[in-house]
């Protein structure tokens, strides 16, 4: 795809690519060696891109996808461990991303291949059209990391798929295939991996021809942005406490040491 970089970003990282072309901004996770796990700088670049896309009347839709066969393995666990040790960055850009997604008025489309872990799945709850690979792996293993749901997913995931299915995903870390996610209407369509990005781009090309005023008004009617914001704030408070818990320290250490966590050692 030919394109020009979007408006100058405040946060500089090579691990997020932003390409704007023909009224569509593509935000691309580009850290394939780490399964596109998202660092604070990457959140900063994503927030910059979302804010720029919302502010620019020439942009009529956003498309999010990942390079290298994965969507994203979620928050960088090294970053989580750092915050858990009290080494908090000057600005936690994830908060900006969540707020931008909660308030975003224009259509957001996602193309998901491979792993979509944690925020990789919860951000899909803020996307308006989601295309996944049949063999994509969607999971929200917050409890396994001694954490709690974020991105208003404690509200939106049960709303989308029911309490028990959502609880199974949160509490047991159940992984949904793309095919299963489509069968329970968590996403629009599951496709062979090679067809996912083309399908998402085709949808983006169609939607930018629709009247943007009506699109924005429809989205505003369909989503209670104020409630979503309130839920995000409550989740963030509990999440921040959990992040500093001995249980979470054990989970992050275990990941770094490539072993299963032993929560019987703590608490
Ligand atoms: N944060 C930081 N690094 C991560 C990461 C994350 N969330 N997910 C994967 N990586 C890194 C691995 O440490 C590994 O790095 P290395 O090659 O330098 O050792 C590399 O990405 C490849 O990951 P690996 O685990 O070898 O790939 P896999 O195909 O066996 O498994 C996953 C893929 C996504 C299932 C697995 O990496 C995983 O469970 N990641 C953690 C997901 C998570 O808990 N995210 C937070 C949610 S809140």
From TrEMBL:
Matching Pfam families: ECH_1
Subcellular location, record wording: Peroxisome
Keywords of the record: Isomerase, Peroxisome
The keyword Isomerase belongs to this UniProt entry's keyword annotation: yes
InterPro entries recorded: ClpP/crotonase-like_dom_sf, ECH/Chromodomain_protein, Enoyl-CoA_hydra/iso
PANTHER family: ENOYL-COA DELTA ISOMERASE 2, PTHR43684
Protein name as annotated: Enoyl-CoA hydratase-related protein
